[in-house]
Amino acid sequence: MPDFEALRRDYVRLLIREGVRLQPGQRLVLSAAVDQADIARACAEEAYNAGCREVIMNWSDDALTRMRFLRAESDVFDTCAPWRSLLYNSLAEEGAAWLFLDSDDPENLKGVDPDRIRRSQVASGKAVKTFRMLETSNGFPWCIAAVPSPAWARLVFPDLEETAAVARLWEEIFKAARCTRGQAVADWRAHSDTLQKRVAILNEYNFKSLHYQNALGTDLTVELPEGHFWAGGAEKCTKNGVEFSANIPTEEVFTLPRRDGVNGTVVASKPLALNGNIIEGLRFTLCGGKIVSLSARRGEDILRNATEVDEGASYFGEVALVPYDSPISNSGVLFYSTLFDENASCHFAFGDAYPCIRGADGMDEDALLSMGVNQSITHVDFMVGTADLSITGTTHDGRVVPVFVNGNFAF
Amino acid sequence: MPDFEALRRDYVRLLIREGVRLQPGQRLVLSAAVDQADIARACAEEAYNAGCREVIMNWSDDALTRMRFLRAESDVFDTCAPWRSLLYNSLAEEGAAWLFLDSDDPENLKGVDPDRIRRSQVASGKAVKTFRMLETSNGFPWCIAAVPSPAWARLVFPDLEETAAVARLWEEIFKAARCTRGQAVADWRAHSDTLQKRVAILNEYNFKSLHYQNALGTDLTVELPEGHFWAGGAEKCTKNGVEFSANIPTEEVFTLPRRDGVNGTVVASKPLALNGNIIEGLRFTLCGGKIVSLSARRGEDILRNATEVDEGASYFGEVALVPYDSPISNSGVLFYSTLFDENASCHFAFGDAYPCIRGADGMDEDALLSMGVNQSITHVDFMVGTADLSITGTTHDGRVVPVFVNGNFAF
Question: Which of A272, B72, B132, B208 could form a disulfide with A279 if both were Cys (CB 3.0 to 4.6 A apart)?
Answer without folding.
Answer: A272
